[in-house]
Amino acid sequence: MEPVDWKGLKIPDYPTIITKPMDFGTIKSKLKEHKYKNVREFMDDMELVFSNCATYNAPGTYVAQSGKAVHEEYQRLVQQLYLNFYL
Length: 87
Description:
Histone Acetyltransferase, Chain A, 4 helices, mainly alpha
């Protein structure tokens, strides 16, 4: 829900592995501030969150499994809402 606090979490390799961080809190702020020009920009940021999660967290870990489950639900909602129509 917020940017990864890699210093607080003591994971100093995070910024070298994840060069373009993104989180749901930032996405929410960008939505509220009307910073997305189109649906594609929003969806790209959403996919970046899931990609970063899968890249940094080892498969099988709680965080990786949770990220995968949320991603699957997001994809289901995208299909249900026909968001691809706007791309």
